[in-house]
Amino acid sequence: MGLIIDTNVFVRWERAGQEIDFSPWQHRGDAAISVITASELLVGVHRADTEARRQKRSAFVEAILSQIPIFDFTMEVARVHAELFALLTARGELVGAHDLIIAATAKHYTSAVMTTNTADFARIPGLEVIELEA
Fold first, then answer.
1. Which of 6, 23, 57, 119 has the most CB within a 10 Å radius?
2. Angle of helix 97-108 relative to helix 75-91, nearest 10 degrees?
């Protein structure tokens, strides 16, 4: 078992100026991110509204990307994603495309998802969701 970290957890920590610390959850196994989280973090760098903020955000993101394992969107993850998408669509319970990729990654690796967005992830059957409290 492990822990897949949603993008919004890092955004919250960056905005609060907090250090990245997964020690309270180390009993769950290693922390990792989906490749889509890496992309979302990099988008944040490109969208910074000042050069100073871009540089600061870039340093924060690059530290994450160099320290935390990144799980690719593999064919195995794609199969889980397709199954989840079909199930949720049939129920009329759509989840954002990126969140669904993160959820599929977590399910494939039998990991929980840590997020500040529990509403969307709670719709995913069999997915353990851990809310990062404010």
1. 6
2. 120
Q: Which two tokens stand for residue 18?
A: 């907090």
Both tokens of residue 73? 């969107």
H/E stretch holding 25 reads none
Residues 126/107, Cβ–Cβ less than 8 Å: yes
CATH of residue 127's domain is 3.40.50.1010
* Model confidence pTM above 0.90: yes
Question: Which pLDDT band, with edges at 50, 70 and 90, does 126 fall under?
Answer: very high
**Identity of the residue numbered 56:** K
Nearest CA to 129 out of 114, 116, 117 is that of: 114
Asked if 34 and 101 touch (Cβ cutoff 8 Å), the reply is yes
Q: Are strands 111-115 and 70-71 parallel, antiparallel or unpaired?
A: unpaired
What is the number of domains present in the chain? 1
Q: What is the pLDDT of residues 46-103, one digit of tens each?
A: 999 999 999 999 999 999 999 999 999 999 999 999 999 999 999 999 899 999 999 9
> What phi and psi values does residue 74 have, to the nearest 5 degrees?
-90, 175
